[in-house]
């Protein structure tokens, strides 16, 4: 029910209101509630709260802080509680505060009720076992207690031991020792020096037929007593040992077998704190829904450590499942054996529960019915490892209230999530720190001394995949003369996956991946083989469809199949990726159509990129642009979204060798400029230039020199408000001169006009106005003679400014008006905005401030229409500067502030700082 409150102190402090867990992550809140719970029904003085929270050094107004924490506790338990009301749960008492709760609300009081019931009833064992099941760990586990309060929590622990020892005596008397063994083992681990408890554990072990384990347990506790306390075992412990030696312990066959089938822990298991907590949350469902069977699914890519994680967690919580733990490897992806059939699996599970072979039915349905009958009243932990699909698992699910089933699989068993309410946990590779720590533990401190960098490189080459790290560490331990640096070099230079060959199939990384690949449908296997031709760090459905020459809806189905098998991961809605080692494995698979598939993808990117650029800069056309596409034109938002989504793909594709991929770098220019991504702009052009040089592609070299000139020129211009970056402008000029040389060599006279215009822009940046005007005029003559309206419009922007710089302002404004008019006719909003902004500047020179402000308003609106953040920021700067020069500093500050915020959002720190300097000068 919604208003029901449950409180827990027999383990970590917990509180639940209805079905919702109360958030107790705040330390002081958790400690205050914990002390109230352990003292339930008795007052806690305010001074005790001070000691609990701050020890001997409470802060000023500490009592007020305690009162606030008490108020917060009340409202966590009763959210609608009126202000200053005490509520039902926490009330004032003479020295401080008191928790009022009953056994139905607090696990400690319910434990005491059941313990008392056990002492007074005829069926003491059942009541005491029910009391012991309430424990989830140490009393108040996780609380940081001052010495003065530790005894109170320890006293509750002693209550548990008293009930447990009485229950063990009952169980030994009636031949039910096996039912208490897991609980006794957990308690004995927590209190290894309690002789009465250790004596009971020894007797339980002997009574369940584990004579050798009982003898070993005695010697272990005897050694601890001598080494830690300096005493010999007392009479109770010695008597228990003597009974074991005399075989004087009733070893009657238990009423039912308690399986303990968990495989050994991986001794190098480390990290995975968040994942272990998620599994613990699975188990928490048993407390919230005691009548339900809870199912958890751990899925993930091959070799990611699913079995190790589940095994580690299962050992940690085995004591919470007193009726046993079953473990079954279903071999869903075994290279040498077929998956375990449901009938065979049920037979193995029933054998673990003590059913003789002669009593096993042959029909799968009857086996399932028998399994559910045998588990109907048991609190079991069942681990089903390496499941292939839902059909293999469904017959193996028990119907036992309080049972927990954990399933591991490479496949995402969504059918169980939908049909059976299973809770999924997708296991990713561990963090770099966790992977490094695991490898360090395997190799040992002596082996890695002085080789930290090589250790990091090994982790990187293994892609943090636990299986790959285990194989590499095994190889390193087998050959101690190899340095880690040598191993890192081998990983860096060897053919993909060769270093990860294991000594047997289950430790061979390539072989492990192949188990999943062989289970794919034909079309999924084909796409998996083609995917290495996709250059991006991730990929969407549309580009994947082009790569595979498949319909889009079919491609989505295949991508979902690859995702279900964990060969791919959907890293965000509509974008997929895969682990580096899985990509390397896919690349090793032969497919003669991979080069053709890659060319299809590159053609698609060029075609769509040209369409997107028409939306960003309608007047611009690039080298060898594809023919007019049949698809409808993109709008601005579509174009920006496409570039943003495929940016990594385009950058990676522009670095491919031998496919004239520099064209993909070229189409990124307007997007880079619009987003102010100057460093990425230059890096992409540099890589593409290197490819063009290596291929001897002069046309590509010319295009990339121009692109690099633009990156340096625009970046230099963006810093001009701080200090003109003459070095960058000089670099831009050098790139353009090289472009002119190559185009002249190629005889591309028509393209020289654009480069002359670019040279004019560069000379203008360093105030070489006569030279700039000369270059612009050469460009204008070529554009006009060739009938290029686009080139004419763009060049008039330059002549307009430079004519004014050399003294003819009116002629310059005429050029700018003409440039803007042509740009509007062409639909080139960006150029029209630049023309308006430049015209405003010249108007301001003539003292026509209001006209200038009006033209800047037009420019800002045009930049806003095309979402040109850099252009909008620059216009805000100009408006602020113009108003400041006109003696209107308050209005100027408004625009400078807007510009500063825009530059900060764009990551242009120097420009943002320049705006701050302007603002501080007012």
Any descriptors?
922 residues; 14 strands; three-stranded antiparallel beta sheet; 6% strand; Arc Repressor Mutant, subunit A; Rossmann fold; alpha/beta; five-stranded parallel beta sheet
Write the layout of secondary structure elements.
Layout: E1 5-8, E2 14-17, E3 20-21, H1 27-38, E4 44-45, H2 46-54, H3 62-77, E5 90-92, E6 96-99, H4 107-120, H5 124-132, H6 150-173, H7 181-190, H8 195-207, H9 211-229, H10 235-245, H11 273-288, E7 294-300, H12 306-317, E8 325-329, H13 342-352, H14 364-374, E9 381-385, H15 390-393, E10 404-409, H16 414-420, E11 423-427, H17 432-443, H18 445-448, H19 452-461, H20 466-478, H21 484-493, H22 509-518, H23 522-530, E12 539-540, H24 541-548, H25 552-564, E13 569-572, E14 575-577, H26 580-588, H27 594-616, H28 636-653, H29 662-666, H30 669-675, H31 678-695, H32 698-718, H33 726-746, H34 749-765, H35 769-785, H36 789-805, H37 809-826, H38 829-845, H39 849-865, H40 869-885, H41 889-906, H42 909-920
Helix pairs in contact: 1-3, 4-5, 5-6, 6-8, 7-8, 8-9, 8-10, 9-10, 11-12, 13-14, 17-19, 17-20, 19-21, 23-25, 24-25, 24-27, 27-28, 31-32, 32-33, 32-34, 33-34, 34-35, 34-36, 35-36, 36-37, 36-38, 37-38, 38-39, 38-40, 39-40, 40-41, 41-42
What does this protein look like?
By secondary structure, the chain is α/β, with parallel strands linked by helices. Among the domains are: 1-144, Arc Repressor Mutant, subunit A; 273-427, 3-Layer(aba) Sandwich (Rossmann fold); 432-509; 512-613, Winged helix-like DNA-binding domain superfamily/Winged helix DNA-binding domain (Arc Repressor Mutant, subunit A), CATH 1.10.10.10. The strands form 4 sheets. It has a 5-stranded parallel beta sheet, with helices on both faces. A 3-stranded antiparallel beta sheet has the order 1-2-3, with no helix packed on it. Helix 27 (594-616) runs antiparallel to helix 28 (636-653), helix 34 runs parallel beside helix 36 and helix 37 (809-826) packs antiparallel against helix 38. The protein is elongated, with a radius of gyration of 38 Å. Mean pLDDT is 85; it is low at 251-255, 624-629 and 719-724. Residues 1-101 form the OmpR/PhoB-type domain. Keywords: DNA-binding, TPR repeat, Transcription, Transcription regulation.
């Amino acid at each position: 029910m919604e208003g029901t409150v449950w409180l827990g102190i027999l383990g970590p402090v917990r509180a639940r209101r209805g079905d919702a867990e109360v958030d107790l992550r705040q330390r002081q809140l958790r400690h205050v509630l914990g002390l109230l719970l352990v003292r339930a029904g008795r007052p806690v003085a305010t001074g005790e709260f001070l000691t609990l929270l701050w020890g001997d050094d409470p802060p000023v107004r500490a009592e007020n802080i305690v009162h606030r924490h008490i108020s917060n506790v009340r409202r966590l338990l009763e959210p609608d509680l009126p202000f200053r009301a005490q509520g039902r749960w926490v009330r004032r008492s003479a020295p401080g505060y008191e928790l009022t709760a009953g056994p139905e609300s607090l696990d400690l009081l319910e434990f005491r009720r059941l313990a008392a019931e056990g002492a007074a009833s005829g069926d003491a064992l059942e009541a005491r076992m029910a009391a012991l099941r309430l424990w989830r760990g140490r009393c108040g586990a996780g609380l940081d207690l001052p010495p003065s309060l530790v005894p109170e929590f320890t006293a509750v622990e002693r209550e548990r031991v008293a009930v447990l020892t009485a229950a063990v005596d009952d169980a030994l008397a009636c031949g039910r020792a096996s039912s208490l063994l897991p609980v006794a083992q957990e308690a004995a681990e927590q209190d290894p020096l309690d002789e009465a408890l250790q004596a009971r554990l020894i007797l339980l072990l002997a009574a369940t037929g584990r004579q050798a384990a009982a003898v070993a347990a005695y010697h272990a506790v005897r050694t601890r007593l001598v080494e830690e306390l300096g005493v010999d075992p007392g009479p109770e412990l010695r008597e228990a040992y003597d009974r074991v030696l005399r075989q004087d312990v009733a070893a009657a066959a238990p009423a039912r077998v308690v399986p303990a089938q968990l495989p050994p822990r991986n001794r190098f298991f480390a990290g995975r704190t968040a994942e272990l907590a998620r599994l613990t949350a699975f188990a928490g469902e048993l407390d919230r829904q005691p009548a339900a069977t809870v199912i958890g699914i751990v899925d993930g890519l091959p070799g990611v450590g699913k079995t190790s994680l589940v095994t580690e967690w299962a050992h940690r919580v085995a004591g919470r499942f007193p009726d046993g733990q079953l473990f079954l490897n279903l071999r869903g992806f075994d290279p040498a054996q077929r998956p375990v059939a449901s009938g065979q699996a049920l037979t193995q599970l029933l054998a673990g529960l003590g059913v003789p072979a002669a009593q096993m039915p042959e029909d799968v349905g009857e086996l399932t019915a028998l399994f559910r009958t045998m588990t109907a009243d048991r609190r079991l932990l069942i681990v089903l490892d390496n499941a292939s699909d839902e059909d293999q698992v469904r017959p193996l699910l028990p119907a036992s209230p309080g049972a927990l089933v954990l399933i591991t699989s490479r496949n995402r068993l969504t059918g169980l999530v939908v049909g059976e309410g299973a809770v999924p946990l997708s296991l990713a590779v561990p963090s770099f720190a966790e992977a490094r720590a695991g490898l360090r533990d395997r190799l040992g401190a002596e082996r890695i001394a002085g080789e930290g960098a090589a250790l990091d490189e090994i982790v990187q080459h293994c892609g943090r995949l636990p299986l790959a790290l285990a194989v590499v560490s095994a190889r390193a331990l087998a050959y101690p003369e190899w340095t880690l640096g040598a191993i890192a070099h081998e990983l860096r230079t060897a053919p993909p996956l060769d270093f990860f060959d294991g000594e047997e199939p289950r430790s061979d990384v390539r072989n492990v991946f192949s188990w999943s690949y062989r289970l794919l449908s034909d079309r999924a296997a084909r796409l998996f083989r083609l995917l290495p031709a996709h250059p991006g760090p991730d990929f969407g459905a549309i580009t994947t469809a082009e790569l595979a020459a498949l319909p889009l809806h079919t491609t989505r189905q295949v991508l979902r199949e690859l995702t279900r098998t964990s060969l791919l991961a959907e890293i965000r809605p509509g974008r997929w990726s895969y682990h580096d080692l899985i990509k390397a494995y896919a690349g090793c698979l032969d497919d003669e159509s991979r080069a053709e598939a890659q060319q299809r993808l590159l053609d698609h990117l060029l075609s769509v990129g040209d369409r997107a650029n028409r939306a960003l800069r309608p007047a611009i056309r690039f080298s060898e642009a594809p023919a007019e596409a049949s698809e409808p034109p993109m709008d601005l938002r579509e174009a920006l979204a496409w570039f943003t989504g495929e940016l990594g793909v385009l950058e990676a594709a522009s670095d491919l060798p031998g496919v004239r991929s520099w064209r993909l770098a070229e189409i990124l220019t307007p997007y880079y400029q619009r987003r102010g991504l100057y460093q990425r702009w230059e890096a992409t052009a540099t890589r593409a230039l290197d490819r063009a040089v290596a291929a001897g592609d002069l046309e590509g070299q010319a295009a990339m020199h121009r692109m690099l000139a633009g990156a340096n020129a625009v970046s230099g211009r963006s810093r001009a408000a701080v200090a003109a970056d003459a070095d960058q402008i000089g670099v831009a000029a050098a790139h353009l001169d090289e472009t002119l040389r190559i185009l002249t060599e190629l005889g591309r006279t028509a393209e020289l006009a654009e480069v002359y215009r670019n040279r004019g822009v560069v000379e203008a940046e360093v105030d070489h106005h006569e030279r700039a005007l000369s270059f612009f005029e050469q460009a204008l003559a070529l554009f006009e003679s060739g009938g290029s309206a686009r080139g004419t419009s763009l060049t008039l922007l330059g002549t307009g400014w430079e004519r004014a710089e050399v003294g003819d302002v009116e002629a310059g404004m005429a050029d700018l008006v003409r440039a803007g008019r042509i740009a509007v006719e062409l639909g080139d909003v960006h150029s029209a905005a630049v023309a308006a902004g430049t015209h405003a500047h010249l108007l301001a020179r003539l003292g026509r401030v209001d006209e200038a402000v009006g033209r800047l308003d037009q420019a800002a609106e045009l930049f806003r229409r095309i979402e040109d953040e850099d252009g909008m920021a620059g216009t805000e700067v100009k408006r602020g500067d113009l108003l400041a020069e006109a003696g209107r500093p308050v209005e100027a500050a408004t625009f400078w502030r807007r510009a500063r915020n825009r530059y900060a959002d764009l990551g242009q720190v120097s420009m943002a700082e320049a705006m701050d300097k302007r603002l501080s000068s007012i």
